Amino acid sequence: METIMDIEKIKEILPHRPPFLFVDKIIELEPRKRITGLKNVTANEHFFQGHFPSRLVMPGVLIVEALAQVCGVLVLGEEECRGKLAFFASIKEARFKKPVVPGDTLILEVEILNHRSRIVSCSGIAKVDGEVVCEAELMFGIVQ
Length: 144
Known about the structure:
- This protein has one domain (7-143): Thiol Ester Dehydrase, Chain A.
- Helix content is 17%, strand content 41%.
- The chain has helices at 7-13, 60-76, and strands spanning 25-30, 34-40, 85-96, 105-115, 119-128, 131-143.
- β5 (119-128) and β6 (131-143) form a beta hairpin.
Protein backbone atom coordinates (compact mmCIF):
# COMPACT_ATOMS: atom_id res chain seq x y z
CA MET A 1 0.00 0.00 0.00
CA GLU A 2 1.35 3.33 -1.04
CA THR A 3 1.43 6.03 1.62
CA ILE A 4 -0.24 9.22 0.42
CA MET A 5 0.09 10.94 3.81
CA ASP A 6 2.16 9.86 6.82
CA ILE A 7 1.46 10.50 10.50
CA GLU A 8 3.36 13.81 10.49
CA LYS A 9 1.26 15.19 7.63
CA ILE A 10 -1.91 13.93 9.36
CA LYS A 11 -0.89 15.82 12.52
CA GLU A 12 -0.58 19.00 10.45
CA ILE A 13 -4.31 18.68 9.62
CA LEU A 14 -5.90 17.05 12.68
CA PRO A 15 -5.70 18.54 16.18
CA HIS A 16 -5.69 15.03 17.73
CA ARG A 17 -2.56 13.67 19.37
CA PRO A 18 -1.64 10.34 20.94
CA PRO A 19 -3.15 8.58 22.72
CA PHE A 20 -6.27 9.84 20.89
CA LEU A 21 -4.97 9.83 17.31
CA PHE A 22 -6.34 6.74 15.53
CA VAL A 23 -5.00 7.17 11.99
CA ASP A 24 -1.49 6.01 11.12
CA LYS A 25 -1.48 6.90 7.43
CA ILE A 26 -3.60 7.76 4.42
CA ILE A 27 -3.36 5.34 1.50
CA GLU A 28 -5.96 6.78 -0.92
CA LEU A 29 -7.27 10.31 -1.39
CA GLU A 30 -9.69 11.82 -3.86
CA PRO A 31 -10.18 15.43 -2.67
CA ARG A 32 -13.74 16.41 -1.65
CA LYS A 33 -14.94 12.86 -2.44
CA ARG A 34 -13.28 9.94 -0.67
CA ILE A 35 -10.32 8.86 1.43
CA THR A 36 -8.86 5.65 2.85
CA GLY A 37 -6.80 5.56 6.02
CA LEU A 38 -5.04 2.85 7.99
CA LYS A 39 -4.76 2.14 11.71
CA ASN A 40 -2.45 -0.60 12.99
CA VAL A 41 -3.98 -1.96 16.19
CA THR A 42 -1.37 -3.07 18.72
CA ALA A 43 -1.55 -4.62 22.18
CA ASN A 44 0.10 -1.45 23.53
CA GLU A 45 -2.99 0.72 22.87
CA HIS A 46 -3.96 2.59 26.05
CA PHE A 47 -7.61 1.48 25.93
CA PHE A 48 -6.70 -2.22 26.16
CA GLN A 49 -5.74 -1.71 29.82
CA GLY A 50 -9.45 -1.67 30.66
CA HIS A 51 -11.28 -3.04 27.59
CA PHE A 52 -11.11 -5.99 28.30
CA PRO A 53 -7.88 -7.11 29.97
CA SER A 54 -8.82 -10.79 29.69
CA ARG A 55 -9.88 -10.46 26.01
CA LEU A 56 -8.49 -7.43 24.22
CA VAL A 57 -11.13 -5.85 21.98
CA MET A 58 -10.98 -2.36 20.45
CA PRO A 59 -14.03 -0.39 21.63
CA GLY A 60 -16.55 0.17 18.85
CA VAL A 61 -16.79 3.84 19.69
CA LEU A 62 -13.06 4.18 18.93
CA ILE A 63 -13.50 2.48 15.56
CA VAL A 64 -16.16 5.11 14.79
CA GLU A 65 -13.74 7.79 16.05
CA ALA A 66 -11.06 6.44 13.69
CA LEU A 67 -13.52 6.75 10.78
CA ALA A 68 -14.32 10.29 11.92
CA GLN A 69 -10.64 11.21 12.04
CA VAL A 70 -10.11 9.92 8.51
CA CYS A 71 -13.06 12.06 7.40
CA GLY A 72 -11.46 14.95 9.28
CA VAL A 73 -8.26 14.56 7.25
CA LEU A 74 -10.30 14.74 4.05
CA VAL A 75 -12.39 17.76 5.03
CA LEU A 76 -9.96 19.74 7.21
CA GLY A 77 -7.22 19.21 4.64
CA GLU A 78 -9.11 21.41 2.19
CA GLU A 79 -7.71 24.91 1.95
CA GLU A 80 -10.95 26.61 3.04
CA CYS A 81 -11.16 24.41 6.15
CA ARG A 82 -7.51 24.57 7.30
CA GLY A 83 -7.23 25.44 10.98
CA LYS A 84 -10.90 24.69 11.68
CA LEU A 85 -12.35 21.89 13.81
CA ALA A 86 -14.92 19.23 12.98
CA PHE A 87 -17.37 18.33 15.76
CA PHE A 88 -19.70 15.33 15.67
CA ALA A 89 -23.30 16.32 14.93
CA SER A 90 -24.70 12.79 14.53
CA ILE A 91 -23.87 9.14 14.11
CA LYS A 92 -26.47 7.07 12.26
CA GLU A 93 -26.81 3.44 11.32
CA ALA A 94 -23.67 2.36 13.19
CA ARG A 95 -23.21 -1.39 12.99
CA PHE A 96 -20.44 -3.52 14.43
CA LYS A 97 -19.95 -6.88 12.75
CA LYS A 98 -16.74 -8.35 14.14
CA PRO A 99 -14.33 -7.57 17.00
CA VAL A 100 -11.09 -5.73 16.28
CA VAL A 101 -8.12 -7.11 18.23
CA PRO A 102 -4.37 -6.50 18.54
CA GLY A 103 -2.55 -7.38 15.34
CA ASP A 104 -5.43 -6.22 13.13
CA THR A 105 -4.96 -3.52 10.54
CA LEU A 106 -8.05 -1.35 10.21
CA ILE A 107 -8.68 -0.05 6.72
CA LEU A 108 -10.89 3.02 7.12
CA GLU A 109 -12.84 4.03 4.01
CA VAL A 110 -14.84 7.27 4.01
CA GLU A 111 -16.94 8.83 1.28
CA ILE A 112 -18.49 12.29 1.42
CA LEU A 113 -22.27 12.20 1.02
CA ASN A 114 -22.90 15.93 1.36
CA HIS A 115 -20.55 18.86 1.97
CA ARG A 116 -22.08 22.24 2.61
CA SER A 117 -20.11 25.16 3.99
CA ARG A 118 -20.40 24.21 7.67
CA ILE A 119 -21.96 20.72 7.62
CA VAL A 120 -20.41 17.53 6.25
CA SER A 121 -22.00 14.09 6.12
CA CYS A 122 -20.16 10.95 5.12
CA SER A 123 -20.41 7.19 5.09
CA GLY A 124 -17.65 5.15 6.63
CA ILE A 125 -16.66 1.50 6.47
CA ALA A 126 -13.93 -0.10 8.56
CA LYS A 127 -12.46 -3.39 7.35
CA VAL A 128 -9.99 -5.96 8.61
CA ASP A 129 -8.60 -8.45 6.08
CA GLY A 130 -11.26 -7.37 3.58
CA GLU A 131 -14.15 -8.04 5.98
CA VAL A 132 -16.40 -5.22 7.18
CA VAL A 133 -16.08 -4.78 10.95
CA CYS A 134 -17.99 -1.50 11.27
CA GLU A 135 -20.07 0.85 9.16
CA ALA A 136 -21.77 4.13 9.98
CA GLU A 137 -23.03 7.44 8.62
CA LEU A 138 -21.41 10.43 10.29
CA MET A 139 -22.25 14.12 10.30
CA PHE A 140 -19.99 16.96 11.43
CA GLY A 141 -20.23 20.66 12.03
CA ILE A 142 -17.19 22.63 10.87
CA VAL A 143 -16.26 25.48 13.26
CA GLN A 144 -13.46 28.01 13.77
